[in-house]
Amino acid sequence: MFFYVIQGVGYGLAAASQPGPFQTYLISQSVTRGWKRTLPAALAPLVSDGFIIAVCLLVLSQVPPWLERFLYLAGGLFVLYLAYGAFKSWRDFDMKTPQAEASGGQSILEAALTNALSPNPYIFWTLVTGPILIKGWRETPVNGIGFLAGFYTAMITSLVAIILLFGLASRFGPKVSRILLGVSALALFGFGSYQVWLGITGT
């Protein structure tokens, strides 16, 4: 089991460090809402990934190309919606007024939806971690559980570090907060546009 735990930790770190819509969303929320309000969003993969893993292991590896394109298109449109929200926050940023803070529950659900509509976790669980999980589970369920435990412990810890890093960086002043917010809006727009392009072209 120890070998599978180590593999899980390694892949968890890799998944959290991959640039993508979900990570960019966390950065954006850290800047606008603060790290304390955003911190619960680090748990979002625990909400969304059960469905993602099931889809990947049972269905996604054999779906027709048109369904994969639809996934990219739907995810891209949602990320563009998030980019628009980040842009409005950047445009209307008030240097003197504290930014509005959302509840932790809203943060988790919005982050979980962002993760569920991003193609990254589907691709990751289909091509990389899914086969390892199946192999370990077939040997003994303890191996599969160990792999999942290592994966999510490392991933959530890394996401917490990202939230703290950018949340604390925003304390250097409102100008830094606005710059980080603008960068996150541009990144979200880029990720969303790329996913829509993949959905339309199928490349």
Describe what this molecule looks like in 3D.
Helix 2 (21-33) packs parallel to helix 5 (65-91), helix 2 packs antiparallel against helix 10 (174-201) and helix 5 (65-91) packs antiparallel against helix 10 (174-201). The N and C termini lie far apart (39 Å). This protein has 203 residues and is mainly alpha-helical. It has one domain (2-13, 28-201). Helices cover 81% and strands 0% of the residues. The model is unreliable at 97-102 (pLDDT under 50). The protein is flat, with a radius of gyration of 18 Å.
Task: Supply database-style keywords.
mainly alpha; 0% strand; flat
Q: Tell me the overall shape.
A: flat
Low-confidence stretches: 97-102
Order of helices and strands: HHHHHHHHHH
Strand content: under 5%
Radius of gyration: 18 Å
**Helix share, percent:** over 70%
**How many domains, in number, for the residues?**
1
Alpha-beta content class: mainly alpha
**Overall mean pLDDT:** 79
